[in-house]
Amino acid sequence: MTFGRILTAMVTPMNEAFEVDYEEAIRLAKYLVSHGSDGVVVCGTTGESPTVTSDEKIKLFRVVKEALGKTPVIAGIGSYSTEATISLARQAEGTGVDGFLVVVPYYNKPSQEGMFQHFKAIAQVTSVPLILYNVPGRTSANLLPATVKRLAEIPNIVALKEAAGSVDQVSELKRLLPPEFAIYSGDDSMTLPMLALGCYGVISVAAHVIGNEMKEMVDAWLAGDCAQATKLHLELFPMFKGIFVTSNPVPIKALVEMIGIKAGSVRLPLVNATPEEVKFLKDLLVETKKVSVNTKSRTQVTTELKVASEKASDLMV
C-alpha cells in the first residue's frame, strides 16, 4: 500500500500568541497538494509534534483531512511512550486520516525487541495503516532492517520512512522486504539515491517550497530519464541541505513565510531563525528558483522571488 510518491511533512502554522492557526494549516495543505505533493503528513517532527498537544493534533488531523478530501493525510502519532501513542491512535482513528506515521521511541533507546513490541502493540489497536519512521539522528536508536522485516509481516504495517542516511542500510532493507512494502526517503537529499535502489518516494520537508521541482525530478526518474533526474537533483541539492542550517522546522517555517503563507513562529524550546539565517535562506530560495526556472514561467518565478524578498525583510526586522 502506498500514499503517493511525494508526501510533505507540513509545518504547523502558529499565530502571534503561539496558538495553532487551523485556517492557515488548511491553506498550507491545499497549497502543497497543488504544488507537487501527493499528500501531507500532519504533526510529524516538522509539525513540531513534541510541543503540539494531543487535543491540537486531533483537531489538526480532522480539519486537514476534511479540507483535502480524498487526498492522503498521514497523522503523526508517535512518541517515546507506547501507552500514549496507543491512546492517540485510538482518538485519531475517528478523524478519517489515511495512515499513521509512528516514529521510533526517542530518548529511552529501546532494544530491537523493544521497538518490535512497541510497533506491534500500536498496530494491534487500530485498522489504520502504519508507516514506521526511523530517524536515528533524533531518536538515538536505529530500527534495523531485520526488525523491519519482522514488522512488515503485520498486515497494517505497510511502509517505512527511512532517515538513517545509509545507502547500505537501504540496500539491506530492499533485499529483505517484500516488493509491496513501500520505503520512503526521510531525507530530501537521499530521494534520488533511494529511488535508484527501488524505494517508492519521499516524505519531504523541502517540498514546502520546491514541490513542483521535486515532482519533476521524481517523474523524470520514473520515466527513465536518469540524466534529467540527476540534473534536477544536483540543482536542488543546496536547498535539500540548506534547510537544515539550524534545527528543523525553524528554517522551513521561515521559507514558508517567504512564499506568502503565515507559518508563524516556533514554540519553545525552539526559537525563530536569526537575521543571518533568514538572509541565507532568502538567498538560497532565490538561487534555487533561478536555476529551476525551466519548470515554470519566468513571470511566475519573478513574482515568487519578489514575495520572498519582501517577506524576508519583514522577518529580519
How would you describe this structure to a colleague?
The chain is an alpha/beta fold. The chain has one domain (6-243): Aldolase class I (TIM Barrel, Alpha-Beta Barrel), CATH 3.20.20. It has helices spanning 22-33, 54-68, 82-92, 112-124, 136-139, 145-151, 167-176, 191-196, 207-222, 226-242, 250-258, 275-291, 298-315; strands at residues 6-9, 39-42, 73-76, 99-103, 130-134, 157-162, 182-185, 201-204. The protein has an eight-stranded parallel β-barrel, surrounded by four helices. It is globular. The N and C termini lie far apart (47 Å).
Protein traits:
317 residues; alpha/beta; TIM Barrel; 13 helices; 8 strands
Tally of separate helices: 13
Strand content: 5-15%
Instruction: State the domain count.
Output: 1
Poorly predicted spans:
293-299
How would you name the oligomeric state of the polypeptide chains in this document? single chain
Largest sheet: 8 strands, parallel, barrel
SSE order in H/E notation? EHEHEHEHEHHEHEHEHHHHH
